[in-house]
Amino acid sequence: MRLQDARRDHYRKLAHEQGFRSRAAYKLKELNQSYRLIGPGFYVLDLGCAPGGWTQMAVKLAGNQGKVMGVDLSYVEEIPGAQIIRADIEDEFLVDEILDYFGRKVNAVICDLAPHVSGNWTIDHAKQISLNYECAKIMDKVLMHKGNAVFKVFDGEYSMEFRDFIKKKFSRINMTKPPASRKQSSELYFVCLGYTG
Ligand SMILES: C[S@@+](CC[C@H](N)C(=O)[O-])C[C@H]1O[C@@H](n2cnc3c(N)ncnc32)[C@H](O)[C@@H]1O
């Protein structure tokens, strides 16, 4: 077995044993270990949450005093401790629903969005980056001062443009790839700390 396959199997097995719906949960866990995006008591908005691994992990990290909402186009089975909304992130009513649920601005916005992939990287990359700009519009309305965010990025031609755009809104930004993310995949994570608006 190749090392990459062994690693994928390791995370799949771990997810199964620990009751997480996706291996992706471990990417968030690892990002959090390095950057402390989410702490106890945090209010967390998860954009593009299906099947729910990140949402489950966010519930765990935020604890009893925290509040978590996940949003996705696809149906997501109920997650204890989280509110799930089935919606398009471009839905104009979404921001009101988010703020109604939390009752205040959130501490962290986590975005792991991916479009339906066509197999044409140029198109898939451009679509994925454009989803991140949509997330940033929501973030600007719901994230509190000094809050944190993370964006999955399909790396390509427009990644640095997006980095420069988002960088201006935070005190610190790190581009990273957690060990749970396959080496061959072209995804990166932009971890953004200390929202300044
Ligand atoms: C990689 S998956 C997320 C995995 C998730 N973080 C987890 O841990 O289980 C990406 C998700 O983005 C969602 N998505 C893509 N475009 C969207 C949109 N416009 N509005 C809402 N969700 C969208 C897809 O439906 C898909 O479920």
Give a written overview of the molecule.
By secondary structure, the protein is of the alpha/beta class. The chain has one domain (3-195): Vaccinia Virus protein VP39 (Rossmann fold, 3-Layer(aba) Sandwich), CATH 3.40.50. The chain is 40% helix and 25% strand. The chain is built from six helices and seven strands; from the N terminus they run ααβαββαβαβαββ. It has helices spanning 3-18, 24-35, 53-62, 94-102, 121-142, 159-167; strands spanning 43-47, 67-72, 82-86, 106-111, 143-154, 170-176, 187-195. Strands 3-2-1-4-5-7-6 form a seven-stranded mixed beta sheet, with helices on both faces. Helix 3 links the parallel strand 1 (43-47) and strand 2. Helix 2 (24-35) packs parallel to helix 3. The longest helix is centred in the C-terminal third of the chain and has 22 residues, at 121-142. The chain is globular, with a radius of gyration of 16 Å. The chain starts with a helix and ends with a strand. The mean pLDDT is 95. It binds S-adenosylmethionine. S-adenosylmethionine is lined by residues 21-22, 24-25, 48-54, 71-74, 88-90, 112-115, 131. S-adenosylmethionine binds at residues 21-22, 24-25, 48-54, 71-74, 88-90, 112-115, 131.
